[in-house]
Design a protein that fits this description.
Helix content is 35%, strand content 32%. The strands form three sheets. A seven-stranded mixed β-sheet has the order 11-12-13-14-15-17-16, with helices on both faces. A five-stranded mixed β-sheet has the order 3-2-1-4-5, sandwiched between helices. Strands 8-7-6-9-10 form a five-stranded mixed β-sheet. With 415 residues, the chain is α/β, with parallel strands linked by helices. The chain has 13 helices and 17 strands.
Length: 415
């Protein structure tokens, strides 16, 4: 059986072709491009390189979700269009299942974590059960056992489930770097993290699992196929929250603040929520005056799918704020503020270090920011984190008039 596979559920864009037990070709990109730009050129390139006539394929496997809303729509529309034009069947593959299939043969608990933002992950629990094929003596094959099918939940919830199982596990997915510190703090069982060649969406894993599904008859028509988002879209979530009032997340923040007040000296770095927006805007204004972002701007920025916003909380109070936006693989650090009475405590360094780690999970490779040329304390902080000045914008800032220094932290040194 010949299967074409398409996966645009996350930061990785992947196309693969399998024929029986042979992976004929795969093309995978995780760089400064969008799926709408690369998917069809990838497919066309594969067809040219392996002389593939699309009419000869038997089915089209596609990652059905969860994942990026835009990415899933692009992949789904392409798969449905091809299936309709070629009169082929579709094999819908759950995204988290396909990620887990990267670790075929691992008998530990396999837990993929996809960053769903707002302290949420798309996840599932799996393991691989060995069996001996009939007529064989030493050969082993493995069946993937779904312990818990894919679902959306909080980081705390999935950690609680993993601790309750109490067995060694392997973590993988872009949610691991995004929530690494929290996982390290809360997990009580031995765990390892899959290496980079096994820890993201893979066209090869997708078509391999689709082959199994095809044998089980798990194929549908293009008309029957629809993406599985698991959560409402960002716009739908915002509308729902406005309608229902305080969200569960806001309640969670209130509870965490109560706990924080019990340890007044402790500084906690966490994702920013709508509940923090008023305090964060006030902090911005105290530090930046007329140049500060207002509450509405912060709310709009933090609810985008391409941003990460963090706050530092001390004794139930927001004392720090930072944010980054992913623009085609380059991270624009948009906000860095620390309360005046908390400076010198290392809060800015802790926030930015975690922001960069989470940004890497968002697919960012290089980071840039602007700072007043005379802001020595901020510049020293950025230098500690590896930022280098690459230029200036004369007279960029007002009140007082001052140059803007442009800093970059690049994954590769520019020649």
């Amino acid at each position: 059986m010949k299967i074409l596979g398409i996966d645009t559920s996350g930061l990785v864009g992947a196309v693969a072709v399998a024929d029986g037990d042979l992976l004929v070709s795969q093309f995978s990109v995780q760089y400064k491009t969008t799926h709408s730009e690369i998917l069809m050129p990838m497919l066309q390139d594969i067809c040219e390189k392996i002389h593939l006539d699309l009419s000869t394929i038997d089915a089209i496997a596609v990652s059905k979700g969860p994942g990026s809303f835009t990415g899933l729509r692009i992949g789904s529309a392409t798969a449905k269009g091809l299936a309709l034009a070629l009169d082929k069947r579709i094999i819908p593959v759950p995204t988290v299942d396909a990620i887990a299939y990267n670790l075929y043969g691992v008998e530990k608990i396999v837990c993929p974590l996809m960053d769903a933002k707002r302290n949420q992950v798309y996840t599932g629990l799996y393991t691989f059960i060995p069996r001996t094929p009939e007529g064989k003596s030493n050969e082993r094959t493995f069946d993937m056992q779904v312990i818990h099918e894919q679902f959306a939940t909080s980081v705390e919830d999935i950690v609680e489930r993993l601790n309750a199982i109490g067995k060694p596990l392997v973590l993988l997915g872009d949610g691991v770097p995004a929530y690494h510190d929290k996982l390290e703090e809360l997990l009580k069982v031995p765990y390892s993290i899959a290496p980079f060649h096994q820890n993201r969406q893979s066209g090869a894993a997708l078509v391999a699992l689709a082959m199994q599904y095809a044998k089980e008859g798990r194929m549908i028509s293009s008309d029957e196929f629809a993406p599985e988002y698991l959560r409402l879209s960002q716009a739908e979530r915002e509308a729902s929250e406005k309608k229902s009032g305080a969200s569960d997340e806001a309640e969670d923040v209130k509870n965490r603040r109560k706990e924080s007040r019990k340890a007044p000296g402790l500084v906690r770095i966490r994702p920013m929520t709508a509940e923090d927006s008023e305090e964060a805007a006030r902090l911005e204004k105290d530090n930046l005056g007329k140049e500060a972002w207002n509450e509405k701007q912060l709310l709009e920025a933090m609810t985008r799918d391409d941003t990460v916003y963090l706050v530092a909380e001390k004794a139930g109070r927001v004392v720090g704020l930072c944010g980054v936006r992913n623009i085609s693989g380059e991270g624009e650090v948009t906000n860095v503020s620390v309360a005046r009475d908390c400076r010198g405590e290392g809060i800015g360094y802790k926030m930015l270090k975690q922001l960069l780690e989470r940004g890497n999970g968002l697919g960012i490779s290089d980071y840039t920011l602007e700072v007043r040329a005379g802001n020595v304390h901020a510049i020293n902080l950025y230098k500690r984190l590896g930022f280098v000045c690459e230029g200036k914008r004369p007279g960029f800032y007002d009140e007082p008039k001052e140059d803007a220094a442009i800093y970059w932290k690049r994954s590769k040194v520019q020649e």
